Amino acid sequence: MSQENRVVTVTINPAIDQTVTIPNFTAGAVNRVQSSQMDAGGKGINVASFLADFGERATVTGFLGAENDEIFRNLFERKGITDRCVRIAGQTRIGVKISDQVLHQTTDINFPGEEPSEADITHLFEILAELAPTHEWFVLSGSIPQGVSAGIYAEMVRILAGKKVVLDTSGKGFREAVPAGPWLIKPNVDELSEYAGRQLDSPAAILEEARSIMGRNNIHCVVISMGKEGAIFVESNETIWVVPPPVEVKSTVGAGDAMVAGIVAGKIRGLSLSECARLATAFSVTAISHIGSGLPSVQSVEQAREQVTIRELSRKSF
User: Fold this and answer.
1) Owning domain of residue 156
2) Does 257 participate in catalysis according to the annotation?
3) Pairing of strands 58-65, 82-83
4) Distances in Å between the alpha carbon of 279 and those of 29, 121, 162?
5) Residue 249's pLDDT is what?
6) Angstrom distances, CA of residue 193 to CA of 32, 112, 291
7) Which residue is catalytic, options 17, 69, 168, 257?
8) In this predicted model, what pLDDT tens digit does every residue of 103-155 receive, in sequence order?
9) Core vs surface per residue 158-168: b (16+ CB within 10 A) or e
10) Is residue 89 part of a domain?
């Protein structure tokens, strides 16, 4: 367990996740809810939560609606997460996740977030500047709220120059931030294909695009998640393809955030790329194996870690 807080996660479009379990969910029909729960969410907040469960301290910042922040305050207090979030007018949005464990699928219904003011954005950048001298890792993740420039992540990467900045977003925000040179990016294969402007349908094509991005933009590491096919981890002199064990998927909420948390935890602990990849995959496997935020236990991560395999990269299609 790290006694030093080295990680800041930034969530500019958080959500309260309402996970509703409905067996055999059918659109256009009456559905009966088996269970429901509410969790403080948003990608960076999820990352901090996973890190805290694994014994790594974290600071959260970004925007929270002032009118319904109690669920977030309770989470931060319970897990020992340092709260430096900017409170903005209105309420944090709710994201509804319909989990169908019979059909093994999750349906997402995402509401738009509140729009921060220019003063709110300025305040957030002041907090980042204040935290930069005493923190090594900065995780920038999630969508960009309405009314906010798509270049906000690029601007953050630039002001955090020299820090290990992890970027996990998509669309225009991703496209604009990549040239700013974050330390690590974690697109999924569809997001990377969108960025490349072509379908990346083989490990060789994915690796080629990842190395091209690294070379053009001074990026240290690219991690491409591929669902049940695992993930490809690429650094300058090493490439690892990790594959998770088969598990019953109870919820896909936070799977990518768990992987990001596992990457950061592994890097902080000085693990090799292959062991870092195993740990990150174990985080993700553990996250999808239960409903709710965070990790069920450190033991569950270690058990999953032993079952992760490394696959040889080849030119064959998936």
Assistant:
1) 7-25+33-311
2) yes
3) parallel
4) 41, 34, 25
5) 75
6) 38, 25, 30
7) 257
8) 888 898 988 888 999 999 999 999 999 999 999 999 999 999 999 999 999 99
9) eebeebbbbbb
10) yes
